[in-house]
Amino acid sequence: MSVCPICGCEKSSVNIIDYQYLGECPVCGYVNCDATFIDEIVAGNIQKHIVSGIFRQLYNENRHKEKKIANAQELLDMVTRPQNPMEQIDRILIFLYKNFKSMTNYITIDPKYDYPLAFATGDKEMASFLKHLFDSKLVNLEGSRDHYSHVRRNDIVHNSNFCLTIEGYEKAQRLQDNKLNMDKVFVAMWFTREMTPVYKNAIEPAISACNFKPMRIDKKEHNNKIDDEILEEIEDCKFMIADFTGQRGGVYFEAGYAKALKKEVIFTCKASESKEVHFDTNHFNYIFWKDEEDLKVKLIKRISESIKS
Ligand SMILES: [Zn+2]
Prior knowledge:
This protein is of the alpha/beta class.
């Protein structure tokens, strides 16, 4: 047992080895960071409960060993955070939904340990979120009459067992369906120096002009390596723009994956390479572009015609 450097929980097994904190924590899930990152928390660059929330989310998504966190920005870039109390409460619903087995299977949520599930500041805030779900009839509570009255009074009750009601299940399913990132556009393309202006002057402004947000993966790239992070970004995007100029295998793979998920994919390619696109995809309605301006104009037209915002 040791004290977690993030949340202060005394039941953690986080250890410091070679200036790195590593280990499980019942609150944060799994801590995986450099000692320099702890200095940033001490300096107030990032709030503790946010750190716990992100580590816990990475743990739940089995991404906690993906990368050793060196600074606050790196951690913040890894997940989408809830932006208001409603979205925080939605996180609890989604947690219960993902762990749902049946209407009689209750799942323990202990505010003392589980407040990071909702990025809550601590057990008090978590208890008030749970009370709200209970009062709104989105969750059922297992336990004694005493338990009920505690939750009603918004006292902190440890080890309460919750299950979604039909209404709660319905809401969680809806949330899951139009999940989190409905304005994100995944851009699959050959990230090379010649293509940078094509991205900057055509693809990015076309996406922004249609009120979507481009998601460019080249920072994380990847020497043609399609990792889980990329697959997840594709799963979370609203639609994809795939430019096949350069005929990269990764672009074909990413576009195929998006197609399999029934996502809209806009196929583009430089006109001079129109003969080279792979036979399996040349029946898709490609935008063949002459120059950056041409691509931008055609993309804006295609996005506004084919993507419902
Ligand atoms: Zn912790």
